[in-house]
Amino acid sequence: MVVNSSRKLINLDQHDDYLDVDDKPKEECGVVGIYGDPEASRLCYLALHALQHRGQEGAGMVTVENKVVKSVTGIGLVSDVFNESKLDQLPGDMAIGHVRYSTAAGSSSMLKNVQPFVTSSKFGSFGVAHNGNFVNYQLLRAELEGKGSIFSTTSDTEVVLHLIAKSKARIFALRALEACEKLQGAYSLVFVTEDGKLVAVRDPFGFRPLVMGRRKNGAIVFASETCALDLVEATYEREVHPGEMVLVDDTSKEPQSMYLLKPHPPEPKSCIFEHIYFAQPNSIVFGKSVYESRHAFGEILATESPVEGCDVVIAVPDSGVVAALGYAAKAGVPYQQGLIRSHYVGRKFIEPFQKIRDFGVKLKLSPVRAVLEGKKVVVVDDSIVRGTTSSKIVRMLKEAGAKEVHMRIASPPIIASCYYGIDTPSTEELISNRMKVEEIRKFIRADSLAFLPTDSFRKLLGSDHTNFCYACFSGKYPLYPSVAMEESIDDTMKLTVAAN
Amino acid sequence: MVVNSSRKLINLDQHDDYLDVDDKPKEECGVVGIYGDPEASRLCYLALHALQHRGQEGAGMVTVENKVVKSVTGIGLVSDVFNESKLDQLPGDMAIGHVRYSTAAGSSSMLKNVQPFVTSSKFGSFGVAHNGNFVNYQLLRAELEGKGSIFSTTSDTEVVLHLIAKSKARIFALRALEACEKLQGAYSLVFVTEDGKLVAVRDPFGFRPLVMGRRKNGAIVFASETCALDLVEATYEREVHPGEMVLVDDTSKEPQSMYLLKPHPPEPKSCIFEHIYFAQPNSIVFGKSVYESRHAFGEILATESPVEGCDVVIAVPDSGVVAALGYAAKAGVPYQQGLIRSHYVGRKFIEPFQKIRDFGVKLKLSPVRAVLEGKKVVVVDDSIVRGTTSSKIVRMLKEAGAKEVHMRIASPPIIASCYYGIDTPSTEELISNRMKVEEIRKFIRADSLAFLPTDSFRKLLGSDHTNFCYACFSGKYPLYPSVAMEESIDDTMKLTVAAN
Amino acid sequence: MVVNSSRKLINLDQHDDYLDVDDKPKEECGVVGIYGDPEASRLCYLALHALQHRGQEGAGMVTVENKVVKSVTGIGLVSDVFNESKLDQLPGDMAIGHVRYSTAAGSSSMLKNVQPFVTSSKFGSFGVAHNGNFVNYQLLRAELEGKGSIFSTTSDTEVVLHLIAKSKARIFALRALEACEKLQGAYSLVFVTEDGKLVAVRDPFGFRPLVMGRRKNGAIVFASETCALDLVEATYEREVHPGEMVLVDDTSKEPQSMYLLKPHPPEPKSCIFEHIYFAQPNSIVFGKSVYESRHAFGEILATESPVEGCDVVIAVPDSGVVAALGYAAKAGVPYQQGLIRSHYVGRKFIEPFQKIRDFGVKLKLSPVRAVLEGKKVVVVDDSIVRGTTSSKIVRMLKEAGAKEVHMRIASPPIIASCYYGIDTPSTEELISNRMKVEEIRKFIRADSLAFLPTDSFRKLLGSDHTNFCYACFSGKYPLYPSVAMEESIDDTMKLTVAAN
Amino acid sequence: MVVNSSRKLINLDQHDDYLDVDDKPKEECGVVGIYGDPEASRLCYLALHALQHRGQEGAGMVTVENKVVKSVTGIGLVSDVFNESKLDQLPGDMAIGHVRYSTAAGSSSMLKNVQPFVTSSKFGSFGVAHNGNFVNYQLLRAELEGKGSIFSTTSDTEVVLHLIAKSKARIFALRALEACEKLQGAYSLVFVTEDGKLVAVRDPFGFRPLVMGRRKNGAIVFASETCALDLVEATYEREVHPGEMVLVDDTSKEPQSMYLLKPHPPEPKSCIFEHIYFAQPNSIVFGKSVYESRHAFGEILATESPVEGCDVVIAVPDSGVVAALGYAAKAGVPYQQGLIRSHYVGRKFIEPFQKIRDFGVKLKLSPVRAVLEGKKVVVVDDSIVRGTTSSKIVRMLKEAGAKEVHMRIASPPIIASCYYGIDTPSTEELISNRMKVEEIRKFIRADSLAFLPTDSFRKLLGSDHTNFCYACFSGKYPLYPSVAMEESIDDTMKLTVAAN
Lengths: 500, 500, 500, 500
Known about the structure:
Four copies of one chain form a homotetramer. The first copy, chain A, is of the alpha+beta class. Helices cover 33% and strands 24% of the residues of chain A.
């Protein structure tokens, strides 16, 4: 949610080493909304915990009781930010929450950018949590500043606050609607207002997920993924639809629904990468089981790119596991834990050992010689971004005795950066933008390499196929970033964009 | 600088016990500006240290280099907030800084209110530090919110940012001028802008102090008091005048000056309490030596309210010491250290011992039996606010053997709350508003009690006399708070205000 | 390593809720020794990281350079305790390190118990790190105190320091040998001395693991498991043998070896639970691949306790995964990820949600409906201790749609508490000590339940079989705790012990 | 209490800059004991606060209830170490406490050295707090280590624990007595035992102070100074006498007294520097008012070293104030606050500004031009150690306009380092050891300089005169440090010692 231009810069310079360990795109946030439960803040805490994989560097919550809006935000994991006493400071039966992926160290300016944001306006205070990215942020901000607005964060989310405050509409939902109709880009937003309204809204393309559920006591729960509903024991009802705004307050028994008409009517383009990498396997995202998608990706790979006489199928854990199981099942080859992942490696862990040498992936992944020695190995990963990690994994497997290493990637080649809420490196850095598959294979020194064919999505998703965004694989963006954003893109990138 | 209405509330409820230990009004802030020194952040750090007595609960600094604005703020003393590495994050040859007195515990919302504030607007980023209180804050905020502005703090200072951003003027100084002309109340402000301008301005009444000095290398230094100039080895040049705005940038060799014409032309009403209590004795404030003022107050007391046959003159340290020395000198009676002040008592110290009993003043002040035993004692304090501390001091002195205790107060009775940047209790709580001098004497159980006669100021200040604000002693306010503020004032207070 | 008696108490009272989430025995520590590498502290840091699963609550390191012994210890993970600057404070080419599982919260007394311990004696300073438990600690301590020794920790490890200091032998290795010959119980110890000697020793039963490896530059590395050797790129050479003391210093090119003769000659009784649960699957422990052992346990279960017509095999992650893969492979049934484990659940996480209800296992494990719905499920776990978690897992799986749940446990029933370095609940709490298998099945509401038959070990290990300790499964202890310890054992336990 | 040898080293190397700001000897600790009050820990907290001037870098407390010994220690001020919840962890009606001056930064090894120490021995646990310095520490430690004792701290206090544990006596008081009879040096010790005994003891020379008082409820209070008794509302009864051990337990209504017979019978040599500098002016120390002593020192200076025609007498605050008042009173010249001391300057404050230049004293002391300009000034300080600060003060006063600066020192020249619990620089660094008075005057550029004549003590103290230690002024030590200690003394020092 931090503006795209600066984000790209940070990736290149500061976090290269860290990203190297993972070489994955980074999801930028999860959101939660709870309405009508006396334990709202505790439920929100649990739901945020369930969404922790969507952002580990900041968390926050806003509650409302008796027209008083309270907020706690902080740097770190959900369990770092909240404790018993902090939750006690958040009374009331409605709450919104946010987990955040972020790129800057623990500075005081960073804390400013941790959501939910709360602001005060003429019709009272309200809070907002945002997952996504506004591609016309720079234009909107310039326009607002031109009219004398001041900005206190570097987050694109702040423009929503201004747009809402500037709306002449009488009631909050209409103000929010009017504001959203000016936004372009990817967003799943939840709002809570001083006077007790909870509003959830998803952009007309529906890039980012947002679901709605209900607890036995009637409390309504919104969350980025269904795994959060499960943990708070809410039953999944449905997605918030692309372009839909859902309002919950005490004037009606049921949540009420409105649709955005601008900048264009709903036109679903859900992010396929949620199914490939971001979401938890136990979630239902965009109406489909993530586990089943990944398993099917693995099965397709086994069918399309089989490895004759392979001994064992292993995964790059954790994200490659389900696809690897699918591959193994389809291929009739045993799945084994050939790589073990350490769960104690955080960003701060990496600093001290750099003086010895580049340990890279070794800290996070350990090979199991008993599984690998003398074997013809198929290793399944979910995606390749810059390729640096893949080459280290191949070397690691061979050093642990693998006779052959055949890499299978449960997604097509990533050739274009994302502008809709995912933090991918610049297009220039994407290995699949620079090399053909065979070149990549040589670069990572695998005995064979295959990606998921793009048209697998068509087979798998059927008529739903057109409802997804594949821009990172095709370079065909449903929506272009605004001029101001393009200026911050390097030349190579612009050419690439132009070419599509 | 936190808005008056909530402040009053906090005094009454939360900090009663703490204030009890001191029973003094609280200064609300000190400001610093440095222009043209390569060590700007380090000098600013020293200057803030020298102003630490003006605010101990938060500190911050903003510097500018190459159009990049950097900021560090934090809770606590200057030395808690800054260290070598933090100062290294603040490069550049210009800086503004702030120390803050505040009333709320270390919550994340508190940190938001720590100054300087930095904001971004269409003509770039700028920072501001503020000492004072805008009496038309509520009206201005309502007006701005009515036009769609959003507020992210509860500090009155935020309105200045909005007003500046909304100005149509082309250059920053004119924007700031236009904004200030809409402000009513007490303020000494320093600004720094992205494009390298430093601006210092004082309200037309000049309630709060602000001085200008110069280092040998030509660097210009603004500060609330001259003691800050001394520490950074800047020579005191002059006050920033009431209603004056001073601009320093690289377009001219000398600071340039403009004057506010609205809401009214300059009409000096400097806060006499700076001389009585707030400022450091080694400062020159409003062109006069604070030490000399306090010494003279003591001398006047000795002349007007002598104590026949007294043995010793002592002070309530630290603020009563200079007046006590004046009293002793004039009366020809030895001054002794009859009370010793502990410098290890902070707010957090007080919590654990409350379970035993109300130790109150005992933790901060210790009597010296060797000085007091069997003596007829004159004890000089600078002021009485609620009277609770004074009665404890009298009892403490008698328990330590004093035969008689004659209290002399180096200021007139305080009968009215302040709206110009000082945090006094509500008028209702002021003992001198509720009791006559003789009643107070009985209440505190002193053998005699005398205040400084109000007309001493006339004698002492001569023709300058009319340039000071005595509202806390007279109830005659140079400027009324806005309607919105009055609504937050309790009834007693309104009557008092009306009566004047 | 904290004394057994108090440990039992703590389990019962304080950590019930936490243990409930896991219901596993707790390993009590990992140790590391590095000799002859200029990057000793950084290598030790990496090795401790690789052993992090053996203790997450405290870590420490001691290095020696130029006769100066330096030490850093702290509460938390290895990455919490050390950073670049801390490692820079630990110069030298030899280091010992320790990770610790512990039971008490972050008190100052806790910090005292974090190892390695450093002490000063007449022949200089030395440090020690200990994995294990001395069963004659109470007797030794009483004896030492009787002679006037004072104790500054509550850890049994401290007696070694005293025994070494009291030895009359001239050189350190002989002092250590003499001391160890007085110890009874389980221990793998590493020492480092002021004058540059590194000593590693394992008790005559060899209960706890300790391996030796070598880096390309000739540096010698000792560690609890081979996974630590792998990370520091040391080649595994061999185990330190039961009853063996290995000395490394600059007087010889090769490590030198001595054997303890008292209290009895070496008689291997290695802890089988290392293969069942504690060690990393990629480690070689007691000369055998942990992965292969667990896979074989699963295969045996599939053979001995098949489930007719089952649809899917799942694991209780992470410790049950390898056995589940073995089961699935042998049974020819697909393995799937039916339970997903959260890696963000630490002890502090659990506090706030307890007010809602007992979420127990739900926070750590999430079921995958896509895998479970309508299926006949085999779920493999490594062990059952108190049974509370198992019953929650069965319920969770059924709620997620499983038609039948058949639990398979990759170890025999645990019927007796451990005195050799593992923190198991008291015998009274062990479900298998209180119930028969069928009763347990009913208690956990599984459709079937089977444990690994005890004689599987014989089959699997062949002639090595007699070299392992199975006390937790048989109640037949190779070594009894001392009288003082027994007194702290509850009556039930004593009966059990007597019965064997 | 940290061993002398290392201490000297640290002074020279690490803390030069910090000491420079003060140039005073450092007191090394204050102790407290409370017996028979249900609020023991809170009273102890207050008493430690009252003794905060005796040590600001560490604090701790030990309480006993129902045979359970509890301890809290930490780095920092009393109010940093304790809070409500920490005090709640310290139940019981008896407590001992300690404040500590120390020289090393916040390392984990430092925390080990924070007192009170608690240890466990065959007759149970006990705690000890120590003010002083054992001159035969090295010998005792070598002897104990020779017998196999191990040491876990670098503090000389630890030997007492060993000596007590090694005693064969049946009851604690006799064990402690036996141990103390082996100690040589300066000590005021308080002990508390598991079985509810409080013991206070002072060395036969009585170098360091220790007083006894009683609260209205009968509770007995021991403390280094009477100011601690005052704060806890205990009435001062008497000193613990040199060589006396006082035992309080529930077997007798009154404290019971014993005397040490070894190494020699009581022979009072109280530290005169307590009256000159360390103690609070409101304390009674060694039976005399500190305030009166200092006032008299000032009076003597005025008589012996008058300054013809001087205009004003000022003090170097805070320690020089009382002597300055004495001087002013005797000389009939007005006393003024010519220097103001900042109370916000801690050690950490100093780091960042060093890059600008050596601000030294300026941060702590500010001159008052209104007092000094054009004046002939007498400035009174309590002592001169290395002389660096004095020269800066003289320059500061002259820069602030003083016409002449006449420095008067309220103690004789310090020519020898202390071995009895005071941290003075090595003899080599003492300016009075290297220069004659006139040379010092030139060095500090004062217009005149005079010290207190040594025989003033005789006049002032009368027959008590011989009961004080003047070693720092005479080099005549009542007790020599042990051989081991001497070895750590540089050559110059040894010569000096030999010469006396």
